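User: Please predict the structure of the protein below. I'd like the answer in structure-token form so I can feed it into my own downstream comparison script.

Assistant: Understood. Taking the following sequence of 536 residues as input:
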Amino acid sequence: MPRTRPIIEKKTEINFWSIAVGLIAWLGFILLASFLSFFASIDSHVSDHAVMTLRDVSKGISQLMETKIEGQWTTLAPVAKFAESEEDLLQSEPLRLIMGSMKTTSQFSTVFVANEEGIAVNNEGLELDISDRYYFKKAMQGYQNISSLLKSRVTEEEVFIFAHPIRDASGVRGALCAAIRVEDLQNLIDHSIFDGLGYVYIIAGNGDIVVRSVPDEHPIKDVNIITFLTREDTESSITAQQLTHDMITRQQGYFTFVGNGDLQNAYYEPLDVNDWYVLCGVPMKHIRAQSTELFWIALKLCLGILVALAPGVLAFWFRERNRKIDLIKRNKELKWNEERFRIVTSLSNSIIFEADFERNTIVYPNGFKSRMGYEPVTEGFPYSVVEAGHVHPDDAQAFIDLHTKIPPFTEKLVGEFRFLGKGNEYIWHRIEEVLLLDDNGKAIKSVGRALDIDDEKKAIQLLEARTQIDSGSGLYNKLAMEVYIRKFLEECRHGRHAMIVLDIDDFKKINDTKGHVYGDQVIADLAAILKNQFRA
């Protein structure tokens, strides 16, 4: 017995340390494998985050560009409507004055009107022939369109042409056209994406780069992205053939390529203008920089667990401590993002809202009361908004119809209405809403904005009024009177009507003996007498 006891103790000692070393090695292996798996997951998350971020930014820029371009068409539409009533498009002085005003009040550098033969005259009276231009031919087919990049025959600048058809009872009789410089179209692009390190291209269907944003360095040096991808020294995850196919079929997608010595992430999204595309990109190093702090937190966590492997309680405490720190930081970041959203929306000229068509509610995340001067109605939408008098009576039914008679699978709502503002005055707003649909295509929610366009509306109304008033007498001119008389007769077809025609005897004698200035004053005085004697 005395000889066997030490042997038993020795075996017990060896078994204990073997098990301890084995457990430590096993736990170390598990931690190392978990560590590598965690970092692999982080890399995957960064890549997924890059795709989702670029997709959302591209879609947002695409929608913003479409909205801004739609604003240019909105500027042209009333002038084209006025031109329809002009007998001679090229000789109309009122039309030329309106085109001159458009040049100073819009982003258009030149405005011109063309007859059906393609002979055009611009706002300065300069005549030119555009019959060979594709945008003119397209407009004469009844389509409003934007040209490809052209060199202006007047200024030699590189421009894009917005062409709007002018119609009459027999069809298209001309086109109203307006040129916008490349740099002015560039200004429509949001240059602030990814803290100014991102870049945006507008690309035509053939791959030509139509417009590019203006960061310090662009990774695509060629003027055509298809040519860029076919170069032997271009490293890309997509082929030129695949991108061409996607653009023909109006698909969207993500790819990477090497440019400026760095891996670039890019996302392409179809633009609802011509066959154009929006391509949005950002260097991978910028996206990875956003997750660098997360890498360091994970590294500290793993090192702490390895150091505290023996005292399990300390390891658990360290993990919980880091989890709480990370949670507090995420909460702070979330609050900061919310505050940043609040600041951005408060500086914006828009009111952001979210409507729920199933619950008939609407909420406003930014300062509705500070902008409009009263508390919003949130229940019973849209009827309660009308009943509260927040919508102009003339616009009430259209406002209700817009939100209650939504066709299935409608993706977007747009309308212009007058809403009650400060001082009990109605202010024109343009409503733009993106709809959330259920499986049957029924609209269940919407997120949108109400943009103040009161100044724009009043400017257009003033412009329309100026075309109807005779500058000498202050009365309606012949064209306006003819329109109003025809409208009155059409609306009161079965009533009795009277029309007084006044003739000034020997008015030519007044002009011949007293001069035209004196004659103009006589007309103005007679107009004042008529205004005092008749209700208007």
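That's the full token string. Confidence is low (pLDDT under 50) at residues 1-14.
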